[in-house]
Design goal:
Layout (H helix, E strand, L loop, with lengths): L8 E2 L11 H9 L2 E2 L2 H9 L8 H21 L23 H13 L5 E6 L6 E2 L9 E9 L10 E9 L11 H4 L8 E7 L3 E6 L4 E7 L4 E6 L10 E3 L10 H11 L10 E2 L5 H11 L2 E4 L12 H14 L3 E3 L19 E4 L1 H11 L4 H10 L1
Parallel strand pairs: 3-5, 11-12, 11-13
Antiparallel strand pairs: 1-2, 3-4, 5-6, 6-7, 7-8, 8-9, 9-10, 13-15, 14-15
Helix pairs in contact: 2-3, 3-4, 7-8
The structure holds 2,5-anhydro-1,6-di-O-phosphono-D-mannitol and magnesium ion.
The site of 2,5-anhydro-1,6-di-O-phosphono-D-mannitol has 12 residues, from β5.
Length: 376
Amino acid sequence: MYGGAFYGIVNANFAPRVNLGLRHQRESLMETRLVTIERHIAEQQQQFPAATGEFSRLLRDLTLALRIIARDVRRAGLTDLLGSTRVVNVHGEEVRKLDELAHDVIFRAMDHGGHLCVMASEEAEGLVHIPANYRRGKYVMVFDPLDGSSNIDANITIGTIFSIYRRLDETLDTPGTIEDILQPGYRQVCAGYAVYGSSTQLVYTTGLGVDVFTFDPTIGEFLLSHPQVRIPSRGSIYSVNEGGYALWGERLQQYITYLKTPSLDGKRPYSLRYVGTAVADVHRTLFYGGIFMYPANRTAPHGKLRLIYEVNPLAKIITEAGGRASDGYRDVLQITPVDIHQRTPVFMGSAEDVAELEQFLRGEHSFQQCAHAESA
Ligand code: AHM
Ligand code: MG
């Protein structure tokens, strides 16, 4: 057996890039705790004395689904998983798209646990109901099964995003309703994502900070690798599809020009990084800082990203890690959705960067005053 290898190695003073001397390394290993995601969930549950364990079981079922999706994503190029549903394989069967497959995996992992009363998925038109023959619970789950699907065929990082709410009336055992789904993001009891990149990582929060687990495929476990992650208060990277520049409002254009203008203190120009998978761009922003944007433009007045499936869970993670998430004027977590597929512009990342962006959108930044004076 693997013994200790089943556990993630966590040091309270985790500092992976620090080059420790050998003796110091040995001492520091002796101070470490070894934590799988199951153990971590169980330990967090102990902080809520009234907890019944239902929520922990829900998370356990979800991590099973994420393990299965991670496996399928890793084998995507070797199987018939890539491509559109119009493709027919050698058996004469219609090939399943990976994002539809991911939706089904999550549904099948979550429908029978007795924890949820309803789900909603970016891949489904309406509500995703719990089959009548299964018990219903007090939680609601929304998810984007495979974010960044246009990147799948090119083997670029993709991810799964989820959030969990309590149903509005927990005493009911009837099917959940649209009102249970249309809750503002600040009511999320748990939010997270899995990112299928150079390794698979699972990032989640239940309001007790943000923890990152890295999947070890040799033992099939998510191991706590980055406890209590904090986003830098300011970064030096901006992330946006700048192809839309000509369609943006003038104040946003000024902000981007500002980020690209060298400053005397050397803090600008910022670097541009854009994967085109929101999970991947936000994950990098969580670790390195900076700002991720999907703004409105003349042809898409609400932007592209979905409030419920993408923006709210990612915003909750960034906010819990000490950053900010805004639609340009207000905290996105305060928005009460009116439609399950509603879109919203979004700017999220380091608190100082997002605050500065908002200043630009209000037309109050000194750079704008200077530009105005020069053009007068
Ligand atoms: P998807 O849910 O169909 O994958 O679309 C959402 C994705 C986001 O992951 C990403 O931020 C965005 O679309 C990229 O859009 P664009 O190609 O317009 O830059
Ligand atoms: Mg998506």
